[in-house]
Amino acid sequence: EMDTNEKIRMRTEYDLYYIENWSLLFDLRILFLTPVRLLNTENAY
């Protein structure tokens, strides 16, 4: 949810980092870590 300027800024920084560092290995890492992060419900609604 993008409800503050800070969240929008951080999302933009993450997106730019992804664009600048894209690789197949990086995508595979994201695919591997996504389920792991989903199991951590600390910040869940």
Q: Roughly what percent helix?
A: over 70%
Strand content: under 5%
Q: List the secondary-structure elements in sequence, H or E.
A: HH
Radius of gyration: 13 Å
Which segments are poorly predicted (pLDDT under 50) over 5 or more consecutive residues? none
Secondary-structure blueprint of this entry?
Layout: H1 5-21, H2 24-39
Concise overview:
Helices cover 73% and strands 0% of the residues. The chain has two helices and no strands. The termini are close together.
Task: Walk me through the structure.
The protein is an all-alpha fold and 45 residues long. The protein starts with a helix and ends in a 6-residue tail after the last helix. The mean pLDDT is 89. 73% of the residues lie in helices and 0% in strands.
Features:
45 residues, mainly alpha, flat
